[in-house]
Every structure is written in structure tokens, then in C-alpha cells.
Amino acid sequence: MKQVLKVKIGDEKKYNIEISDDGFEKLNQALGEITKGQRRLVVISKKVYDLYIDDLDFDDDEIFILKDGEREKNIKNYLKIMECAIQRGLTRKDVIIAVGGGVVGDLAGFAASTYMRGIDFIQVPTTLLSAVDSSVGGKTAIDLKEAKNIIGSFYQPKAVFININFLETLDDRQYMSGLGEVLKYAFIEDSCKYPNPLYLFEFLTLGCDKILEKEPITIIRMIEYCLNLKIAVVNQDEKEGGLRKILNFGHTLAHALETITKYKKYTHGEAVVYGMFFIIQWAYEKQYITYSYYRLSMELLEKYGFEPLEAKYPVEKLVGIMKKDKKAGSDKITFIIPTDKKKVGEIQLAPEDVEKMFE
Ligand code: GLY
Asked: What are the φ/ψ torsions at residue 153 (nearest 5 degrees)?
């Protein structure tokens, strides 16, 4: 089965996203066709390399292997990729391909966006998290020790190939992390202004068992629904001037939790789930949402085995991190909060009011 989604941002930026469960020979063929006549540099995650290199049609000398983990998304690796591109003789007409999760995609995408002022870039996401979020929408970045994603660009890929066979070897924790981002879309669907209702909330509620079993057709549909919503949002607001902020539902607390634990304790999706539990609870207490929607929301998250955060962190430190978050834009801290069933809105709170949220 293959689904093709079309992205069109403005008049110039158009690309296809293919989601399929075809064998890897089809992926090789598609990559071969789309990069015909181009020199390629393939930035590939070490784990994916170890598991799949025999299935993938890449030459040894076009491969750059990247160790796994957020810490690898650094300036040293960025420079190494640049040097590798120079050594391989890549010109402006050539292409960088990212094969891996969000770290590989963000780093390789940033390299592609800056090498010779920008060359073609293709995403082959191999984790659920990168398939439903980071591989689509054009955010690329590297981290400095002071801040995550602090250097980056908006740079749309030429194509995205999602082959769900890669998910078979994804460990349970990483799969659940991806589901954290998937669940986010259920809470924001009606604010994405996608023209037709997708009923993602209901789909995720009813399809839970099949999704947890990684049933291929259900997984393809689930990724398709999430990306339809993401594309709708990015089409309206590529550079996060407004609407795109809704994709950060659950993320204000999530980023603070990831930072305070130095990215070692929680996966990104786990942190987002804690952020969603927190903000849904708060929105209910402040009467932004009804009791029945609050319960439905909690039940959806709990159905997937998620629970609210139990660990406690110093509130002033969490709020201090939120203040530094580059998305804040002012002295205030931005939260995306639920306002109605499947709808969210933005609020800005003063740091002292955020401290009160934790009481
Ligand atoms: N990951 C959120 C976004 O792409 O805007």
C-alpha cells in the first residue's frame, strides 16, 4: 500500500510525501529515480546502518554514519558532513539524503540548507517520531550546549519517503515516543483548519490495539492523518509566525523537562505526553474545557498506557528554562492550551503566573 501526500507551500515549494509498506527495493528505486544524475551524500543513523545497510542501495563512499542521540546534533558533526560533501565533490546540483530519526534529519537538513547556500535534500525518516513530525515541514537545526535547535533554518525537502518497515525494529520506548506526538494531533485537529474532518481523536481511540500492534494499514493511515494536519498548518504558516505554534501543544513543559534532565531521562514524546497531561488538567481547572472533554482526553492518553508525571522538579528552575526558550518571544511564556474538543489556543503568561500553575 502506498499513500502520496502533496505539500505546496506558496507557489514554489512543492514536494511529495510517500508513505508505504512496500519492500525496500521500491524505496531504492524511488531514491534512484529522484536523484538520477546527482551526486549524493547519505547521512544515516548508526542503528539504521547496522540493521538495514544490506537492504539499501547506497555506495560505501556516499555514506556518512551518524551515531545516535541528541548530543550528535552538534556543530562538529555539521562540519564533518560539510567536509564530506566537499570531498565527495558535491555541487549545487547535488543532494543530501537523511536516513534516520529526527537528529539525522535536522542535522542533515541544516547541512543541505547551508552547503553552497542550499542543495537538494531528501528525508527518509525511520522512526515514528520523525515520520509524523520532524521530517515534514522544513525545520532543520543543530544544538549548541547552551540551547537546543538554536542554529537552524526553514528548508523544505525535495521529497519525503516514509517506509514503515523501518518501524519493525524500532524499540517499544521509541515507538511510544512517536505515539506521544501522534496523540498531540488528536487534541489540535480542529485548529489545524484542514478542510475535511479526519476524526483522528476517534481513530486513535478505536484503533488503539491495532496501533500498538503496529498493524501496517492502520499505521499508514495514522501517519497520513497526522501529516495531513501538519501539512495544513505548515501551508498556512511555514515560519511559525502564528498558527504553527499549535504544533507545540504540550511542548512548553516538555522542553523544560528535557532540558532540566539534560535530555537523558525522557524521550521527546514522553516529555510531550507529560506536557499534555499537565496543560489539559490545568485547562480543566481553569474551566477552559468541560469535565467530559477533560475525561475523554485523559482516557485517550491512558488508553495508550501513558500516565501524568510523578517526578517533581524545582518550579523556579523549570520556569527559568521556559523563559529562555527561544519560542517565548517576550517576557511572557507561551502555552498552547485546549479550549474545546480538538481545539487549542495560545496564551501568554507571566513567569510568576506560570509558577502558580504548578501549585
Ligand atoms: N515540530 C513542530 C513543528 O514542526 O513546527
From this structure: -150, 165
Grid cell locating 269: 514524546
* pTM higher than 0.90: yes
Q: What is the pLDDT of residue 331?
A: 86
Could you tell me if the CB of 137 is within 6 A of ligand 1? yes
Write out pLDDT tens, residues 291-316.
999 999 999 999 999 999 999 999 99
Q: Which of 134, 182, 326 to mutate to test the pocket of ligand 1 (most atoms within 8 A of CB)?
A: 134
Domain ranges of the chain: 2-170, 177-357
Contact in structure between 115 and 90 (CB atoms under 8 Å): yes
2-170 is classed in which CATH architecture? 3-Layer(aba) Sandwich (3.40)
Q: Does residue 139 have its Cβ closer than 6 Å to ligand 1?
A: yes
Q: Which atom of ligand 1 is nearest to the CA of 247?
A: 2
Contact predicate 67/41, CB 8 Å = no
Q: What is the pLDDT of residue 161?
A: 98
Does residue 244 line the site of ligand 1, with CB under 6 A? yes
The strand pairing partners of 96, in sequence order, are: 41, 121
SS3 of residue 242 by DSSP: coil
Give residue 46 CA to ligand 1 midpoint distance, Å: 25
**pLDDT level of residue 328 (50, 70, 90 thresholds):** low
Which atom from ligand 1 is nearest to the alpha carbon of 233?
A: 5
Query: Options 2.70.98.10, 3.40.50.720, 1.10.530.10, 1.20.1090.10; which CATH number does 177-357 get?
Result: 1.20.1090.10
